[in-house]
Amino acid sequence: MKYLTPQIIAEVTGGTYVGEESSRNIQVQGAERDNRDVKPGNLFVCIRGARVDGHSFAGAAFEAGAACCLAEEAIADAKGPYVIVESTLLSIRRLAEYYRSLFDIPFVGLTGSVGKTTCKELVAATLGAKLKVLKTPGNLNNDIGVPLTLLAIDETHEAAVVEMGISDFGDMSILAQMVRPDIFVMTKIGYAHLDMLGDLNGVLKAKTEAFDYMKPGSLAVMNGDDDLLRTFDTRRKTITFGLDEGNDFRTVNVRVEGTEAVLFDVLSDSGELSLSIPSYGSHLAQLASAAVAVGRVFGLTDEEIRRGLASYSPIDGRSNAADTGNIMLIDDCYNANPTSVKAGLASLSALKGRRIALLGDMLDLGEGSDDLHREVGIFAAERGIDVLICCGEKAAFIYESFKSACDEEAVYFKSKPELVAALPELIQKGDTVLVKASLGMQFAELLPTLRKI
After folding, report:
1. Partners of 360 in the beta sheet?
2. HSE-up of 450 (CA within 13 Å, CB side)?
3. Cα(383)–Cα(397) distance, rounded to whole angstroms?
4. Cα–Cα distance, 177 to 182 (Å, whole number)
């Protein structure tokens, strides 16, 4: 069996083992940073955060069944073994890199400025029709989430699908050194983290760092609709996907059945494949062509691909449509950038009835932020959105450009309390309401009010 022990953890991290000699070689499987998530046999990683110090919860982790702790200081009254290291953050990366090297299963890495979490779910659902797949839970795609994902692998898994998110140069190198993807999927180069990455070419440069850590013979799966990705030299075999002609896997004939399903066909050298995803969002059709491409690489049959995509379901905050009894509420408020907001508006515009976009600030866009917000307002007008509701300092530019581009109804609020108070007057029975803003705007706070309307 492949598993860790406190002794191996100490050796890999260069740490100091503390505990009884008889506990040096006990089995450790999986890792958690939150004691509430600890399961028997886990490694508990004590991480110092801005508001919470994980060392304070080591005792609770042991009580929950943790087999070992990784810490930066001595643990008082420890009820089990632990390893002291200089940095738990750096050590968990080293440990994940070592542990991943023990497994010879295919690893699929995914990144992009928009759609990477959804694409990860689509790829994992597709492969899951044939294989036991480990996938990134939720959107835990950073330098903490990725190692925790990798440490969850066990010998029953036949493939791994790992989401990889970044915000600065060098971040992808850290993640890719751990993941070492055999297949790397890139969904879109968009306007995200521009305060650190500068422009789209900076985003491309940062995200493609992963190719430096891929083995010879590995595969790139690139969005051929994206100008930068289509022309980027991956230095390895490349498959393209998307809506445009010339893609190796091309989505055509997209049909939307309200918020219930998206139907489409995917064309490739192996023929035409008719598919359906039981979820909201026309954007799913393009991303599904990436899942089909990966499925073909794994040797899945048409029926397996159909069955896999039919099992897809969105995670909270990612284009999750729900009928409240009075309105159709589309919860897409986990995060936002200009590319993802436009995708959300495009999907909203495909629906019938009165369509309302409730939008907030898109953060971390650098010097061009005001103009990028204005572009979203113009796009919303062009897509025929019936009502625009905006809240936030930068969202004022969305509101202003929308008003100048069309005669549809638009309302602006400086603060969320003002917005919440006005919502019952603005929303009508039968409306479809899209809620989207950057995570820092905390628009999830609006959902309870909207569900009661």
Report:
1. 391
2. 25
3. 17
4. 12
Which of 107, 169, 156 shows the shortest CA–CA distance to 136?
107
Specify the length of the chain in residues.
453
Q: Could you tell me the two tokens for 259?
A: 């918020």
Q: What gap in Å lies between CA 261 and CA 59, rounded to an integer?
A: 47
Residue with tokens 């905390």: 442
The average pLDDT across 314-327 equals: 88
CB 139 within 8 A of CB 166: no
pLDDT tens digits along 238-267: 999 999 999 999 999 999 998 899 999 999
Question: Half-sphere exposure of 230 toward its Cβ, with a 13 Å CA cutoff?
Answer: 12
What residue type is assigned to position 344 of the chain? G
Element (H, E) at 267: strand 261-268
d(CA 387, CA 433): 9
Average pLDDT over residues 400-406: 96
Strands 16-18 and 159-163: unpaired
CB atoms within 10 A of CB 141: 21
Phi and psi, residue 190, nearest 5° = -130, 180
CA–CA dist 91, 85 (Å, integer): 7
310: nearest Cα among 120, 125, 160, 135: 125
Query: Is the separation of the CB atoms in 163 and 113 below 8 Å?
Result: no
Q: At what angle do helices 369-382 and 338-349 cross, to 10 degrees?
A: 10
**Alpha-carbon distance 322 to 326, whole Å?**
10
pLDDT at 443 over 90: yes
At 255-301, the pLDDT tens digits run: 999 889 999 999 999 999 999 999 998 889 999 999 999 999 999 99
Beta strand 43-45 pairing with 271-277: unpaired
